[in-house]
Design brief:
Elements lengths: L2 H21 L1 H9 L5 H21 L8 H23 L8 H27 L4 H8 L3
Helix pairs in contact: 1-2, 1-3, 1-5, 4-5
Length: 140
């Protein structure tokens, strides 16, 4: 699977989750965590949905390859989501049947995005600016 395909798939999952949270945050939380939401929780759930929708749209590859920023952003999000959702399952007392599957999905995406995220960061760090390349041709 190419990095572009992986980022596109992950971005689509985040857009879908964001739309679901915007439409019915109580349902998403009930299925994911096995608990309900109060009035304030519904508002915060919708804001989280707006954030996931924005993340997914911003990270969607537009060209031939995924940008390093999008790859790192999705890697970071999936890593933190894995850790926090895993904590909720182990230490937080949430026992929804779907929670382990979501933790496993985020963990898998984290592992798949780790190498491209760090390779792209390394390539950016050691990239020679185009000004230097063009001036070296003229004998500068």
């Amino acid at each position: 699977m190419t990095t572009r395909t992986l980022v596109m798939l992950d971005a689509a999952l985040e857009v879908a989750t964001g739309v679901a949270l915007i439409a019915d945050p109580s349902f998403v939380v009930r299925v994911l965590l096995g608990t309900g939401l109060s009035g304030g929780g519904i508002a915060v759930g919708r804001v989280a949905g707006l954030g996931l929708l924005s993340l997914g749209l911003a990270c969607r590859p537009g060209g031939d390859d995924a940008t390093p920023q999008a790859t790192r952003a999705l890697f970071t999000y999936n890593l933190l989501a894995t850790l926090y959702l895993g904590y909720l399952r182990i230490g937080g007392g949430f026992v929804s049947y779907l929670l382990w599957w979501v933790v496993a999905l985020h963990a898998l995406l984290t592992l798949l995005l780790a190498r491209p995220a760090f390779e792209k960061a390394r390539q950016e760090r050691f990239r020679v600016p185009s000004k230097l390349l063009s001036s070296s041709k003229t004998g500068w």
